[in-house]
Amino acid sequence: MLGKARVLINGCTLPVLIHSHSYVHKNGDLTEEFGGESWLPQTRQVGCSSGYQMHNGICYKAFTTPKNFHDASSACATDGGTLAMPKDASTNTFLLSLKNAVDESGFFWFGLVDHHQEGGWEWVDGTPIGSFNAWEPGEPNNAGDEDCAEYFPTAWNDAQCSEADRKFICQKIPTGCPGGYVYHQPSRLCYKAFNEKTTYSGAVAKCSADGGTLAIPRSPIINKFLIYLKNAVDTTAWFRFGLTDHHHQEGDWIWDDYVALGNFSSWGPEDNCAEYFPGSHSTKDTWNDGPCASADRKFICQVYPLGCPPGYQQHGHNCYKANNDKKSYDNAAATCRADGGSLAMPRDKATHEFLVTLKNQADRSAWFWLGFNDQSQEGEWHYVDGTRLGSFQPWYPNEPNNHGGNEDCGVMIQDEENNEWNDHGCSTELKFICQISLQGHVVRLTFLDFDLENSEFDLEFDHVTVVDGSIDKQLGKFSGTNLPPAVTSSGRTMEVIFTTDQSVTERGFKAQYRAVALEMLEN
């Protein structure tokens, strides 16, 4: 009878040695010897929770309990989301049907404000309103400090945020965020404002326990979203975020991911640890340098979501999505950038074949834009990241031919079998494939010592199997005395399985694993 021992490894957000294992036989029994600190994976569910309905990859729910705008925001945050953001006509129509099913004549808050500048309407994720709106004629009119948006009952209206008789609609993006965290699509990170007080080091420890860091508002959009989140929890409290100068020279401010502050900041008037001024302060929502040891500050954490964003599928260290909307090359590229990525760049046969499968699932007969062009110089084909095409170039026979003198953009065509490349006019509206890189860390397992029974016959006796937990793929199966090569997962989980027939006792094996930042891996 075979005995098995399993260890599930979860990549954290810091590239440090986490844990080591040694498996040995003692008196005929399989035991484990552990070294270092155990780091257990968190369970993260993807999909709409009870009462929510999905539209275009986002989950929505209309709530009937009347609240003011702040309390409605707080209720959505507690549920792991934000107030709903109808950024396009399709979503707006869906939200109207959702609210009308609950209360056709009711007024409902949604996530649009002009808190920061009168008339400068922004979504609660920090992004500007954009070209679509559905304002009631004559609105918004700011008739008495009206800075929050509502359905009135079918068109949009600006209202006083303190109005306490409004119902509301929440949205949640179904990603692999830990419980209580809210996914922020522009930054592709999960955030949570904690309603508890601690020191800077205590806040760092709390965030680290969730596999993250203190939040890093590196851009105005992220900064505005964190202000929204913290105010949904407590408008009168100080909230820490991940910026200090206490590890460095005074005034040399460094983010908690060890990157310099950069050009964006939002300091108030004058300590060593950054925090938001509370909403009751005259300089509310700006930054302050406060005392790191003070235990009366709340805090905001950020973590990477597990896996790909909604609608995307993982291949290697990237996520891909075939879009059925038809757009020009430039507009398709802009759509991908809005998702935090680019048009897809298939650099090898395996990726190309994956994209063929993806496009065929969407539309087998359609042509799809890809991320390469010769717009800068005719015949000089580059990927959209600026690198030249490599040796892998599956052009259709006699392509590229620049037919008509204006075919400068790359496309995957449907040609019965091969789905090869062609050059095409960039203004044509076609479907397209987007690519974004996975964020966070993967697991790299390195064997330090290895001495097992040599399983020569299809590894039927003692052996170690390493499985990629993200895609359920075997990465290696090892036995004998040769030191196996290092193996790297495609995501944040790896499973190590030791199987034995218990007939021979050897020294066993020892391995260590690291959480490695994806940007540190070679392409």
From TrEMBL:
Q: Where is the C-type lectin domain?
A: 55-163, 190-292, 315-435
Q: Does Disulfide bond show up as a keyword for this record?
A: yes
Q: Which Pfam families match?
A: CUB (PF00431), Lectin_C (PF00059)
Q: Which residue intervals define the domain CUB in the entry? A: 394-516
The answer on whether this UniProt entry bears the keyword Disulfide bond reads: yes
Q: Name the InterPro entries on file.
A: C-type_lectin-like, C-type_lectin-like/link_sf, C-type_lectin_CS, Ca-Dep_Lectins_ImmuneDev, CTDL_fold, CUB_dom, Sperma_CUB_dom_sf
Q: Keywords of this protein's UniProt record, alphabetized?
A: Disulfide bond
**Listed name of the protein:** Secretory phospholipase A2 receptor-like
Record the organism.
Branchiostoma belcheri
